[in-house]
Amino acid sequence: MRISFLSALLLIGPSIFGQSPASFPPLVSPEWLKQHLQDPDLVVLHVGFGRKDYLREHVPGARFMWFNWLCPSTPDESTIMAPVAAADSILEQAGISDNSRVVVYFTSGNVSTTTRIMFALLFFGFEDRAALLDGGLDGWKRAGGAITKDVPTVARGSLTLHSNTSIIADAGYVLSHLSDPSVTIVDARGKNFYDGGSAGSARTGHIRGAISIPFSTLVDSLNTFKSTTELKSLFDRAGYKKGSTVVAYCHVGQQATVVLEACRLLNIDYKLYDGSFEDWGALDDRYPAEITPVKEK
Question: Which residues pair with 248 in a beta bridge?
Fold first, then answer.
């Protein structure tokens, strides 16, 4: 199996990055998790849309995290950020405290559901204390990691959350930065949506000037993140403006968080347009959208 340079570093552990033991990098390998699974301050979250998969198998000690607890939808908006008070209660019930480090993982290839939960953790102040398990549960099992059906008994944690609004953008922010060289707007949807071949909202196409980096291109066939060299090449080829802040969007603010996880790996500043094209496409023509011109044969 091919091991990227980043993955090789993660096998060694977080100290190579010059970080304190209280923090770790954005991505951890199954081998890292094997070595740290019994750490008293480590909480592992099994992210899913339903509890049945969790009850069938999960990483020993992992707690179930229903996607909609931190990323609810309403009749007016899809996949919004949970209120701080609600998130505080949910995370405390999972046994998370102010000194906890959190590893999240996905199942069945649902990378974007878990990066969205990861983004919620970042929003609520876990920037240096939250990591994604590369390859998810399948990667864990391929690496010989143990699985169990046992549901752990969890003591309630104690948290004081705050919201990091600096990593959220709205339509007004995007509109005012369409021509800003210090900002790169990234469309994380499939290329057919970006080009305008499929609608998915009230309007077709993409935000004017946005570049296309489909979220699915950032991981390989095993749903492990591509190496930092490959990710940098993808960003550069797509038209990323070196040194700029990425503002990523998708349909409703889920797939875009895979792009933001790549930004974390590449040390690129980022924001999520949380309303994404569901919001932009419903606005008037002052919020411009465009389709990709068809090339003549």
Answer: 186, 272
